[in-house]
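Suppose a colleague, Dr. K., hands you the sequence of a protein chain of 154 amino acids and asks what its three-dimensional shape might be. Before reaching for any lab equipment, you can write down a predicted structure in token form. Begin with the sequence itself:
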Amino acid sequence: MKFFVHTLQKGNICRSPIAEAVFRKMATENGVVDKWRIDSAATSTYEIGNPPDYRGAACMKKHSVPMRHVARQVTKEDFVTFEYILCMDDSNLRDLNRKANSVKNSKAKIELLGSYDPEKQLVIKDPYYGSEKDFETVYEQCVRCCRAFLEKNS
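The predicted structure, expressed as tokens, is then:
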């Protein structure tokens, strides 16, 4: 079984739940969802316990992507149990690497989700202060990146 978690800096209510939902749908459609533990988490405590941003939820509904998520913070255990931790930007990458260095037996491969983007857009920008169009852009990036990641790791 492979493990996969997305994280984001602020609160685990925008980018990462979108990526989690997109990847879960793709893995389900490809008949490999049972080979993956799919989750997302925040590097901060800002939004713990909250549902995804309503604009992200509306975007997922528009694309018929089921989304069930409650924000949580990344834990030390995540670095030991997950094979991959994919993040959205350089700030998250630094935070996650710093946290991983403090965890004994950390085995997670920490990367930018955007490193899998065939269009080479490494950073997936936080749409929180943007518009519905920004959430659509995040969705499109996540589709490209998750598809490439799944193809490489299936």
